Amino acid sequence: MSDRERIHIKGINVCNPVDVKKDYLLYMVEYAHREGFNHIQINGPIHDGVKGNIDGMTPCRKYARFSSEKNLTYVEYCLDAVNAACEKASLYGIKMYMWHHELELPSEFKEVYPEILNSYGDIEVTHPLVKDYLENKIADFFHYYSKMDGIVLTLHETKIPLLKLKDQKLGKIERVKYVTQILYEECKKLGKELIVRPFASIEEDYEMMTKAYEEISTELMIMDKWTQFDWSLTLPHNKFFNKIKKNPLVVETDIFGEYFGKGMLPLMLQKHLKGKFEYCEGFRTSGYVSRIDRNGSHFFGDVNEVNAVITAAYLNGKNPDSAAMEFFKKKYPKAAEEVYELMKKTEEVQEKTFYLKGYYFTELSIFPTLNHSKNHYYFEQMRKDCSLSSDEWYIPKDWKQSEEDVLIKEKIEARELAQKLLLCLEGLEEKIEKTEYDKLWKKFCNLKYVTDVWYELTLCFINYVRYFETFNGEYEKKLIENTKNLLKIRDKGKETLGNEFYCFNNGNPNDSGN
């Protein structure tokens, strides 16, 4: 069996994590069919306490008394939209799956059935009523969505925290196994599939969960991210894959950009995708599922759609570079090679922007964001006798701070390269159709502003730390000047790009414009 024959899951993940939209779902089925994907996962509004998960889209039959907790308008919409997409997908031989989180029970369940509570006041997972409700939930879902092929299960991010419940009859690993087995057996009885996500960042928890899955069935598919912990480009390969011994592995990827621009910055992931596919193939994976949107934004009709083209090429045994070039020829027929060359540099710009000598310095999700390590580390890194904990997620082992000029150098290089790319693009204006040129220009202009901001922010961190190390007033003056420069960049960016300005204005509710 060849590698391409072995990779039988060629998937995309859509509506991540937002309400489903019928037109979008139908478009995605057509897109998947056209581009060689055979598997679609619908994420849906998983963080919405009412609409989220299969609970939020499925009428109850036996437990109809709890239907009042649902948004019935959304339920009716899903019955139409999701079933229409499933119907079309089945005609193309594309499998459809719905994301789901457990443990989830109606908020009034414990009031109606107080006997499910233990002496601590938590829900006792093994109570027969809990099992019966879960079985009926699965049966109801596949009754109303009969052409849905399966469920993608995560045992986290729920109102009832399965692993943190007190005074349980079962330990953590037994609870994981117990709940998963209920869902697995109900799916199997109905001829449906269950895919599980470990969603564990601690090695001990990961081993516990994968062991539980293996004991349920070695046919149970395990899906996990190909970056360790989360979606940053700078995070290492997922070393936990080697904990999956007997079960099929499905690799989850992000090719849209939750932490690298959310589509507002230009980015072609040639190096990232190549490295990740090469690593994952060492585990003889059964397939891949790629997130292609986030919070209602997507890259279709956009230059960043090239990442889906590259991904499809890898999955279907085609040359990814040739596939990318064909994409640019179709989209920018008079400037294909030039745009391709510009996009090849975008990965380097973003890396030099949110790296700090190999350390994951920031994310580019909502900008500027400093939330992927302890806040004081952004200052600690600038100290001459810097000392960081080696067990933090985003810090390479034995990371050592560089000389000050080295820290600043890569930010300068990012600025210079982003400015050069923007100027080169402006030289192509006459060769690119106006609408397409305008979209490209906004992306590259935003990239320039991003690099300007992170250069000044890096200087802010350095001068702030130097002032408190020395109490030299010159550092205070420099810090004030840096903050003034940041405000100038903000004002200039808003003046140039209006509501499409990325920096400081990408969904941040704290930005009042002051």
Fold and architecture overview:
By secondary structure, this protein is of the alpha/beta class. Helix content is 45%, strand content 10%. It contains 16 helices and twelve strands. The strands form three sheets. An eight-stranded parallel barrel has the order 1-2-3-4-5-6-7-8, surrounded by four helices. A hairpin with a 2-residue loop joins strand 9 (293-294) and strand 10 (297-298).
- Class from helix and strand fractions: alpha/beta
The topology string of helices and strands comes to: HEHEHEHHEHEHEEHEEEHHHHEEHHHH
How much helicity do the residues have? 40-55%
**Biggest sheet, spatial arrangement of strands:** 1-2-3-4-5-6-7-8
For the residues shown, what is the average pLDDT?
A: 89
Low-confidence stretches: 506-514
**Main sheet characteristics:** 8 strands, parallel, barrel
Number of helices: 16
Question: Beta-sheet strand percentage?
Answer: 5-15%
Total beta strands = 12
Compute the separation of the termini in Å. 62 Å
Supply Rg: 25 Å
Shape assignment: globular
